[in-house]
Amino acid sequence: MARLEDCDKLKAIFANEGFDSTILQVWKEGQLWGGAKLLDPSNELHVRIILAKDLYRSFLIIDSEIEVPRDYLEHISSDFSHEPYHGPVLEILRRYGMSYEIVGNLPADPMTVKRPVRPTPWKPIAGFLGITAFFLIASESSRGFT
User: Fold this and answer.
1) How many CB atoms lie within 10 A of CB 28?
2) 3-state secondary structure (DSSP) of residue 49
3) C-alpha dist (Å) from residue 55 to 59, 63, 80, 99, 113
4) Which of 3, 109, 116, 129 is 20 to 30 A from 62, comparing alpha carbons?
């Protein structure tokens, strides 16, 4: 948990640490911000800042998970799950002197995570389909003018 008034500071810290704000993501209830950072070619760290409330106060929850990078189709596959991964985030909070509270048991970061042997980049596929669609539409349009 972090203090509500620290939200903008946390966003700036994560941006300074190389996290890109991501619009295309699964937004969780109460989420205020989400960002991702490539750790290595096979792993991306996703962080969310979530507004939570109990009977007495509002506070921030920082949720983080490791996953297949967004550049690959397997990112959305249920075969390669998103695992809780908090160690790097806790280190960032300590380095910047941010106060936080851990509520409950924090799961240990996984030593290994299941990853595709040959991940499938989606951008070349999207480019090929876009070019193909363009030529199909162009050829149909040219037939209509003859």
Assistant:
1) 11
2) strand
3) 11, 21, 37, 22, 37
4) 116
